[in-house]
TrEMBL record:
Pfam families reported for this sequence: FAD_binding_3 (PF01494)
SUPFAM superfamilies in the record: FAD/NAD(P)-binding domain
Species this chain originates from: Streptomyces chryseus
Domain FAD-binding: 2-322
Protein known as: FAD-binding domain-containing protein
InterPro entries from the UniProt entry: FAD-bd, FAD/NAD-bd_sf, Geranylgeranyl_reductase
Length: 396
């Protein structure tokens, strides 16, 4: 969409036909909503009757942060659209911008000339094999990326996956947005989505997977019972599951080299982390825009394409490092490191600081507003934290 809007000739191919569902946590942080607003698409999300969520109930092992980030550029809510809604809006926007979209097309291979990617090869449905040539091929094809495999994109900064996720859609519950981690390495999340249902999801550590699989319904209910007994009772008495459970045994957290001669990667194809913080869609938007800007520079001759793509890779890694560290730390579902324990406990005593932290989680508050030395001093002072309990260094 972004490249087509700048006048470039763009071909989009996808195995799916839209509207199409996808395994996803649906959540779009404020930082991602700002991109949709800038692109002129947020109103379409709202028009699809996606519920606006203006309060977040966040809890980690007894530390509660209940509130919402201060509005930024008019964004005073978050939205969790089903992928049947979101993806069709994005695909249609690409078409309106002038991109050609082939649905039901499976890429089987890339084409190369002297070591440089020059196009793709595949077929539409059961049709004959076709080949398309391109100046640059972008793999936005998930963690099983065909593009990444064919170019041999190497992995780095890999951290083992901590858990697995199951989710489904329920009616009969009016819970709003919850994100709760218990003391027993279990988590659940709830958020309303389209069609009058709420998405309910649970995460447990990998060592619990075998037992969980033996009775998914009981295991799912058990997570709510353990983390929030009151909500567990409400789920049992009032909730009605409307669809089958969807499992996600996600891969390890990783970065992949995201560029090379004639190719680039974006989204989970190039960078994947635990779904615990729900940053997948938002990061895909941010990095998609970053990549489009650099590809545009290369296509217009403003700078060499390889140089532009290298900068994209560098900026992607730098800008995502904080979220990556935060996600892989909290995704363990274990005791918080002392620094996070001290700061989050202090923030929970103040609505101002709670909202600021939720803004940090949402990508609209810079980390220095909380973690700079003078900000930490003010936080601890306002929370009345004794000097001997104050921690200023994340390393402990």
């Amino acid at each position: 969409m972004l490249l087509a809007r700048q006048g470039h000739r763009v071909l989009v191919v996808d195995r799916a036909s839209f509207p199409s569902d996808a395994v996803s946590t649906h959540y779009i942080h404020q930082a991602g909503l700002l991109r949709l607003q800038e692109w002129g698409l947020l109103d379409e999300i709202i028009a699809a009757k996606t519920p606006a969520l203006r309060k977040m109930n966040y809890s980690y092992r007894g530390i509660d942060l209940n509130g919402f980030a201060d509005p930024v550029d008019g964004i005073d809510a978050v939205y969790c659209p089903r992928r049947t809604v979101l993806d069709e809006i994005l695909v249609n926007a690409a078409r309106r911008a002038g991109a050609e979209v082939l649905e039901g097309f499976t890429v089987s291979d890339l084409t190369f000339t002297d070591g440089r990617v020059t196009g793709i090869r595949g077929r539409e449905g059961d049709g004959p094999e076709r080949e398309f040539r391109a100046t640059v091929v972008i793999g936005a094809d998930g963690f099983h990326s065909t593009v990444a495999k064919r170019v041999g994109a190497e992995l780095y900064n890999v951290r083992p996956a901590a858990g697995f996720i199951y989710y489904s859609y329920y009616s009969g519950l009016d819970w709003g947005l919850h994100h709760k981690t218990g003391f027993n390495e279990k988590w659940f999340g709830t958020w309303p989505t389209n069609d009058g249902v709420s998405m309910l999801a649970v995460i447990c550590t990998r060592r619990q997977l075998k037992e969980f699989r033996q009775d998914v319904e009981a295991g799912f209910q058990g997570v709510f019972d353990d983390v929030s007994p009151e909500m567990g009772v409400q789920l049992r008495d009032q909730g009605r599951r409307e669809e089958d459970f969807k499992p996600m045994r996600y891969p390890d957290n990783y970065y992949r080299r995201a560029y090379g001669p004639g190719w680039a990667l974006v989204g989970d194809a190039g960078y994947h982390k635990d779904p615990y913080t729900g940053w997948g869609i938002t990061d895909a938007f941010l990095h998609g825009e970053l990549l489009a800007e650099r590809v545009h520079q290369g296509l217009t001759g403003e700078r060499p394409m390889d140089e532009a793509l290298a900068e994209y890779n560098k900026l992607r890694d730098e800008e995502s490092a904080g979220v990556y560290d935060f996600t892989t730390t909290l995704g363990e579902l274990t005791e918080l490191p002392p620094f996070f324990q001290a700061t989050m406990s202090a923030m929970s005593a103040s609505q101002e600081w709670t909202n600021k932290m939720l803004g940090l989680i949402g990508g609209v508050v810079p980390d220095y507003e909380i973690y700079a030395p003078d900000a930490l001093e003010r936080l601890y002072d306002e929370a009345g934290v004794p000097q001997e309990q104050r921690i200023y260094d994340p390393a402990g």
